[in-house]
Each structure stands twice: as C-alpha cells, then as structure tokens.
Amino acid sequence: MLGSQWESIVKFLDSLMSRLRGNHVPSFFIRKLVTQVFSFINIQLFNSLLLRRECCTFSNGEYVKSGLAELEKWIVNAKDEYAGTSWHELKYIRQAVGFLVIHQKRKKSLEEIKQDLCPALTVRQIYRISTMYFDDKYGTQSVSNDVVAQMREMVDKDNHNMPSNSFLLDDDLSIPFSTEDIDMAIPPIDPSDIALPPFLSDHPCARFLLQHQK
C-alpha cells in the first residue's frame, strides 16, 4: 500500500492534467509544464536523499522506488503528447534509488557503479550516497573500502574548486519555453474564420468587428 504522499502527488497530477485539457491548453504547453513538474520532483527527492541520512536507507529506497513506479504508470497513461520527457527528468532519483536497493554493493567496482548503476551522477554524489547509506532492513554494507578510498581521493582533488554542497541539484526556475516555441506551437488564426458571439452582434460598439469579418 503506497503512502498518502504518493497518492497526493498522483491526484495533483490528475487534477493538473484535467484542468489544462479542460481549458483546451495546447499540448505543447501541457508537455512543458508537466516536464518541469517532474524535474522539480526529481530535484526535491534527490536532494533530500543526499541531505538526510534517514532518507538514505534501504527501506526508503524501496519506498521511493514504489512511488516512482506509480509515477511511471501516470506518465505512460498521459502519453508522450502530454508527458514528454517526464520520465527522463527523474533519472537522478531513479539511479540513486537503484543504488540504494541493489544487493551486494561491496562487490561493485567504482567503474561498474559509474557506468551501469549511476551514469548520470557525479563521483561526489555517489560518494555522498555511499558514505551515508545504511541498510536498516537486512544489515548489509555499502560499497567496499577500496571504492570509498578511490572516490574520496577524487573528491578531495576537486574540493578547492567546488563548494561543499556541490553534490546538490540546482532548481531551474527559468520558463521552459521561448517565444519562438510559442510561435511554432500555436497555428496561425484568421479572424475572419471566427464567428462573432451572438450577444456581441446586438451591441453598436461591436459593429466594427462585423465589418472586419465582411
């Protein structure tokens, strides 16, 4: 049974999609907006995992993984026309959770982790997760000491160039489309093809609209 938090997220997405489509918002705008919502979800979940040790556990990994499965179902049902690249926007949290729930972490080399498990994550982010992780369900251990030592050496070399919290994702608050995108998304409209609402036809001040249509 999923927690109420995931249910609330899915209900919000359903409500958002219903209102946007009910108001005939072009699919282009819906796609951009939904994609940005999922980008925000990814950032919040991923940063919480790296900042709070209680989130960096095997049990929480299973919990978040189950929630991501529900979000994937929602994205599939929404289809690419409206969901766009939403699933791709969740890649950071998906890969981090995949690391949390995988067994036999100590047998994984750094290259295997970087290339197969967490290709989108930086070494600094992987190091943070590896050193904060603890298995509250089965009592298994994190990556080997050799892998931790490799990552620590790489992180130490970069410390003088990067701030201490550089493992966090930045929230992109920019508008997810340009004026050119808007121009391309909205088809040209000929005013003469649009019928004047009947209630306006009786108003003298609206006669110029009728003349324009003629």
TrEMBL record:
It comes from the Eukaryota. Pfam families: DIL. Residues 1-157 form the Dilute domain. PROSITE patterns: DILUTE. This is Dilute domain-containing protein.
